[in-house]
Amino acid sequence: MRRSLLFALLAAVLCFGMAPPAGAEDAPSMELRVSEEAVTVGDSFSAEVLVRLPQDKMLPGVTTLLTFDPAILELQGIEKTPDLGLSVLNEEDNRGKGNIKIAFGADNPDGVRPGDEFRLFTLTFKTLKDAKDAPIKLLAFEGRNPLHAVQDAKITVKGLPPKSYGILSIVPPLVAVILAMLFKNVLASLFIGAYLGVVILMGGNPLAGLTTLIKDYIFVQASDSYNSSLLVMMVFIGGFVGVVTHSGGAAAFAEKASHWFNTRAKAQLAVWFGGIAIFFSDSANPLILGPTFQPITDKLRVSREKLAWLLDCTSSPVCILVPFIGWGIYIMGLIQKEFTALGIPETDFDAFLKVIPYQFYAVGTLFMIPLVALLGFEFSAMYKAEKRTVETGQPLWPDAKPARPSVSINLEEGVKPRASMMVIPIVVLFVCIFGLLIPHGFPVKRIPGAVLRTALCTGYFLGAMSCLFLMVQHKVKTAGQAFSMYMEGAKEIVFILMILVLAWSLGSVCKALGTANYIVGLSQGTLPGWAVPVLIFVTGACISFATGSSWGTFAILMPLAIPMANALGAPVHAAIGAVLSGGLFGDHCSPISDTTLLSSMGAACDHIDHVKTQLPYAMTVALASAIAYIVSGHVESPMLLGLALGLVLVFLLVFGKLWGAKVSDFRSEETR
Fold this sequence. Notes:
Elements: H1 2-15, E1 29-34, E2 38-40, E3 44-52, E4 61-67, E5 73-80, E6 86-94, E7 99-106, E8 117-127, E9 131-142, E10 145-146, E11 151-158, H2 171-183, H3 186-201, H4 206-223, H5 225-246, H6 249-257, H7 264-277, H8 284-299, H9 304-313, H10 316-319, H11 326-342, H12 348-355, H13 360-375, E12 377-379, H14 380-392, H15 420-437, H16 449-473, H17 479-491, H18 494-513, H19 515-523, H20 532-547, H21 550-568, H22 572-589, H23 594-603, H24 607-632, H25 640-659, E13 660-662
């Protein structure tokens, strides 16, 4: 019965506001009246239910059903005030489930007098958490017939002003980064950083900090719809990588491919081209290209650190330049909101295209790859890693802890792996992905994230199944052994899953502490218009590096950057480009960024070694970008992209001479 009433309530709410049927104007009416339409978390307010009768209408009785969201609103009390001959006949109080049902009847045969208006009851609510619209819905019945009295009151519950933690807000991410660098234990560093942040939130209580971290952050982040779907996708990817690697197919493919990509430069450029081709997903990029090219780069003595850098440079920096995928749609939405508020007539799409030449960091990062590959100059930690691999053939340092463990291929004597066990699964993977996405409008239309992740999981699963079939068909492994390989690959992914959940948890803790707002506050003040782009870029770089989130940085800075540039006469397109470049910097090189973690995993590289070797290269592009943004404050021109790229080239040559050298190319023995 209750379900029927709820379904009737929903149907009635959908129809509310439509023209009433003939005779409806003669029916009794009811009103749900709230004392406040906007309240703050923790405040209380009241809701009254009023009845009005037409002059010629009698009301022998009425049943009311009122529903609300118990997660947002807590019902504290009910004051029933029936008068004019009505009394309570029945009451069902299910406030814990968010519904109250009360039936009223008449004490005298005539019922309530026509033309009366009276209050049936008053409810008192307390707000529990913030919500844009917290609906309270009322449905009334006269006998078995619903009255035309459906009401839908929406309450806006404002969050409490965030408590300012000052400099303490940057301590957790700073501790996590320092510990990770010192002890090369990412998992423990992320946990300690997140725990320290929650202890600060809990007023210094260590036990409450631990329980709150687990309950309100780790559990919440792991169960988030987007995060959980990404975790599941990672398991499918792990199974796929496991079978194509354990089967020997990847090694056999590398053996054949080394005849095409027979130099270090060609291998690096191949990864670069592949990364640009997989423009639709920043997470799929390193996980597809990494396992594919790792055997090739190992054979041609390209370090795992270099492979991880190549994967990282062609993930987010590519996606941020494409307007019709999730990145572009999200960015254009932020731009359009500010343009509408300021009355700027330009469309968000036109603005996005005009901003591309001002995305100095993204374009500069992509430009640096062919420069490094063709010129051969390396510097800082990357030079040491490349020199080690070229001279010794060791892809990793002896004490490295790869994010994805290397696998040993154990085949029966006389059994030779085939390259087809790598090629065919890859073909199946891409056919499935594009075959499932094209009907949804890919690549012209925006693809919903759930559809994209479903296509990726399906492609990885069917690709893995095709590899299993080939192994059994060619008698490389039995069906049972092939299935064990799939499960082994899935198990190898658990470590990276734990790192992702803790990285998300630390990001959530930083949000609660107001880390980003504190960094923004440090940069506020009276500024000349020319300084706006570079200040926004530096601020965004600090925020994104501390939080590991580019999208969060965009959401924080875009509402500040566009009005600031507009008010101070700064170039708006350059300011937007500075927001995107600053946010991308941290997403690209922060040790707690998920794409940085995924790149380490895809390359089977030690995560901290990836961060150490990538950071000097990222800082090089950031330095060139900062200079270009200073100039853009004086001269607004898309040609400034040429300045930024020229500076990247100059810095690469100078730094290569000062802190590195030209690494000799290595050619595969088979092609010498």
